[in-house]
Amino acid sequence: MNTIExxxxxxxxxxxxxxASHDFQHIERVRKNAQIISQEEGAVRTDLIELAVLxxxxxxxxxxxSEGKAKENAxxxxxxxxxxxxxxxxEIIESVSFSGGHEKEAKTIEAKIVRDAxxxxxIGAVGIARTFAYGGAKGRKLYDWSEAARMNMxxxxxxxxxxxxxxxxxxxxxxxxxxxxxETGKKLAxxxxxxxxxxxxxxxxxxxxxx
Length: 211
Known about the structure:
- By secondary structure, this protein is an all-alpha fold.
- The protein has a single domain (3-206), classed as Orthogonal Bundle (Hypothetical protein af1432).
- The protein is 63% helix and 0% strand.
- The chain contains 11 helices and no strands.
- It starts with a helix and ends in a 5-residue tail after the last helix.
- This is HD domain-containing protein.
- Residues 19-132 form the HD/PDEase domain.
């Protein structure tokens, strides 16, 4: 069993305890996105990318709270990676989260690829499905057309306030197209972004909120 296979085995059980928006299928889609972007962007450390993808939501505070980082470190310990590779993987993971627009800079090509791969899975048809899956798991309204999107908020405000699922489109999903950092990611995001706009227009019609 190689390092990537071992990592996959260690994280599967963790992700399968999360709701459908962040389960192991999400990881598989992000991994595929990362492979596509990597092929277009040129020579990179694909091993670091794959390990970062596999680990990137283990420490997600939405699910793991304060224990998440310890779980991530325990898996990295078990993988027995060289210290330099371990540090690079941690840096990639730390640069992925949107955090209400307060994300850390993605400095390496590997970090940029993983960030774009994860954000691609947050938009388009699958992004819509994930948004409502998460909202359902958290007991959020489908939509509230009177609710104002928060465009300037702290990370704690972003994580703590329960806005409707559609409001989340305006607070995050519809912003991601312009936040892609690789040329491939930018190209792939365009069609998904347009699909979300069409979905919102149709939802407004069906809820008698068209403008």
